[in-house]
Design a protein that fits this description.
The complex is a heterodimer of chains A (316) and B (298). Chain A has one domain. In chain A, 74% of the residues lie in helices and 1% in strands. Chain A contains 14 helices and 2 strands. Chain A starts with a helix and ends in a 9-residue tail after the last helix. In chain A, 49% of the residues are buried. Chain B has 298 residues and is mainly α. In chain B, strands 1-2 form a two-stranded antiparallel sheet. Chain B has helices spanning 2-32, 39-57, 64-94, 99-121, 130-135, 147-169, 171-181, 183-188, 193-215, 225-240, 245-265, 270-284; strands at residues 137-140, 143-146. Chain B is built from 12 helices and 2 strands; from the N terminus they run αααααββααααααα. Chain B has a single domain (2-284), classed as ABC transporter involved in vitamin B12 uptake, BtuC (Orthogonal Bundle), CATH 1.10.3470. Chains A and B meet through helix 5, helix 9, helix 11 and helix 13 of A and helix 3, helix 4, helix 10 and helix 12 of B.
């Protein structure tokens, strides 16, 4: 199964990379944002398989984004690869520290505490006037190991960067799912005490998941900041986290590809809805979420699984 | 000294506000184990309803006190209808699902209701300042206190007392306590849990709109007021212990006083002190101040 999945992933990557040359510029930038956000969703899937739903994942998104913005502003680094590495590292570090507290919680309390943590960051950013308070500030145009493109070339370069990082993370996460620590996610959701009887620490397993989700979340935020060209505290607000959870529910946790497809569908629907029915966006969002939970509790991904006649693998 | 007095006065007023918005949330969680994100919409509907009621009432030179009562009743009427529709129409379908999934359902309803508010009241903001102006203010030493704020503290205290008495002294209150402790045993003993759920949710919704109605005169009633309230109320409820009325009261007092102290002593930490306190409390008491530890099930 794994070889076939990897092959499918690789060919999807090549097709998506080539498609950008033919697609209009607005669609390329839409897909860039969608795939950057998909990285955060990827992290949510890691957690969701263990039954954890954080309402504060925007914390890492925001940390990644502000790291990129501040690297350019304070240190003068504009190289995209360096910025990415640093933001992934810092977001992972934040997740590691915060994890000592968060890994002890489950269910609602986990959701609430992660929400509180992201709101603390929001509060700090809003009060920090040197960082533009609620307005945020602009992000310097990234360069790529000396290559400094503009306008359309920049859009394409960013898209390919997002795609490459996305593919790497997707590969890494799906490899992680096949390791013992990753495969234990669903048993954790079902019954933790049994896992402790196996001699493993559930808290440590969850701590690792938190760090993975934090790193990919930070990378997603960093890429989003580069392609939007602006950061503001709303990136850490709880409604941003709510949006990521929304896409996760919509996509389902059956595979890593679901994160990317779900995120792209979400961005397209949003663009169309805001265009055709301005003022009804939240209503559409809410209705779709409600209908998904009522009729497709395992997400859109489960439809394809059912069509293929694949057995239910039991991901939530 | 003056600062200390101002901190206590401001803290009590803010605590009253927090208790009013948190009590309905904690009641619903205690009985139904639902973390109700829609509570923010109830608050917003209450505030908009009160503003509409104020618009209907106050241009006719009728007595002011009755106008305030009319605002509250109008708002709570909206809560009654909204609560019934939601519980019977949507939540009934998802009972028994994961707690986190039900949170998402209420989040979805919250998103829908946000746009319903725009549809009904439009994007402009409303004022319902008349009761606040009519109440006037008094001077205590060198501080000027608004009578309306004092009234708010009295309302919150009365509400706390009323919920306490209702839970301990009335038949329905005792039934609620039974359901809170063990739903299945209660059902086995013939308690009509479905009815208890519906009534609880409607009461919770009415408490949410009440919170919005009494706050409407103090704020500008505008889009997005529900969003902030939810996280605030969550923080208060999490500190006190989810589902505990005493907890909501203590949580509101802690957060209210902490925020007032921050505003007067270190204004730059005002926004995150609430969540800071919450994270601190949860680090030491993982399930809040007033909850029993749940036994782990194998």
């Amino acid at each position: 199964m794994s070889a076939r999945t990897n092959l499918a992933g690789a060919s999807a990557f090549v097709v998506l990379a080539a498609a950008a040359l033919a697609a209009p510029a607005w669609f390329v930038s839409l897909a860039t944002i969608a795939f950057a956000n998909a990285l955060v969703v990827l992290g949510l899937i890691v957690l969701w398989r263990a039954g954890l739903v954080p309402f504060g994942q925007a914390l890492y998104y925001c940390v990644g984004a502000y790291t990129v913005a501040l690297l350019a502003r304070w240190v003068g680094i504009t190289d995209a690869f360096v910025m990415l590495a640093v933001s992934g590292l810092i977001a992972g570090l934040v997740a590691y520290v915060v994890g000592f507290l968060l890994a002890r919680y489950r269910e609602i309390f986990f959701a609430m505490l992660s929400l509180a943590l992201s709101m603390i960051l929001y509060g700090v950013l809003v009060k920090t006037e040197t960082l533009g308070s609620t307005d945020g500030f602009g992000v310097a145009t990234p360069t790529f190991a000396g290559y400094a493109p503009h306008r359309e070339a920049l859009g394409l370069a960013l898209y390919w960067l997002v795609l490459a990082v996305g593919a790497l993370c997707a590969f890494a996460v799906s490899t992680y799912f096949r390791t013992t620590a990753g495969a234990l996610a669903i048993p954790i959701r079902d019954n933790e005490i049994r896992i402790e009887f196996l001699g493993l620490s559930v808290n440590d397993l969850i701590h690792l998941k938190l760090v993975i989700a934090g790193v990919v979340g930070g990378l997603g935020g960093a890429l989003a900041a580069m392609s939007i060209g602006h950061v503001d505290p709303n990136m850490s607000y709880w409604t941003t986290s709510g949006g990521f959870v929304f896409v996760t529910i919509l996509a389902g946790a059956s595979s890593v590809a679901a994160a990317f497809v779900g995120s792209l569908v979400f961005e397209i629907v949003r663009t169309v809805a805001v265009d055709l029915l301005p003022g009804f966006w939240q209503m559409i969002l809410g209705s779709v979420l409600l209908l998904t939970i009522l009729f497709l509790p395992e997400g859109l991904g489960s439809v394809f699984a059912r069509l293929r006649g694949a057995p239910d693998r039991g991901a939530p | 000294m003056l600062t200390a007095f101002a901190i206590v006065a401001d803290g009590l007023v803010y605590a009253a506000y927090l208790f009013l918005v948190a009590v309905g949330l904690t009641l619903i969680f205690g009985v139904m184990k639902i973390l109700n994100v829609t509570h923010g919409s109830f608050y917003a509907f209450g505030a908009y309803g009160a503003a509409t009621a104020a618009g209907i009432y106050f241009d006719r030179s009728l007595p002011d006190a009755l106008g305030f009562l009319f605002m509250i009743l109008f708002a709570m009427g909206i809560g009654l209808i909204l609560g019934l529709i939601l519980e019977r129409g949507i939540l009934r379908l998802v009972y028994g699902k994961d707690e986190v999934v039900i949170v998402l359902v209420t989040y979805a309803v919250f998103l829908i209701l946000e746009d319903v508010i725009t549809l009904i009241w439009g994007p402009r903001s409303y004022g319902a300042y008349q009761p606040m102006v009519a109440a006037g203010s008094i001077d205590v030493g060198r501080l000027t206190l608004s009578n309306y704020d004092i009234g708010l503290v009295i309302i919150a205290a009365a509400l706390a007392l009323a919920t306490f008495l209702a839970l301990k002294r009335t038949r329905f209150g005792r039934l609620l306590t039974v359901v809170i402790y063990d739903r299945e045993t209660a059902a086995a003993f013939g308690v009509n849990v479905t009815l208890v759920y519906t009534v609880t949710f409607v009461i919770g919704a009415m408490l949410g709109t009440l919170g919005g109605a009494v706050m409407a005169p103090k704020i500008s009633v505008t889009l997005g007021i529900g969003v902030e309230v939810i996280v605030l109320a969550f923080a208060v409820v999490a500190i006190g212990g989810m589902g505990s009325i005493e907890g909501a009261l203590v949580g509101a007092l802690i957060v209210g006083l902490a925020r007032a102290a921050a505003v007067h002593l270190m204004p730059q930490i005002e926004l995150f002190i609430i969540y800071g306190v919450m994270a601190l409390v949860l680090a030491f008491r993982p399930f809040g101040l007033f909850t029993r530890a749940e036994p782990r099930k194998i």
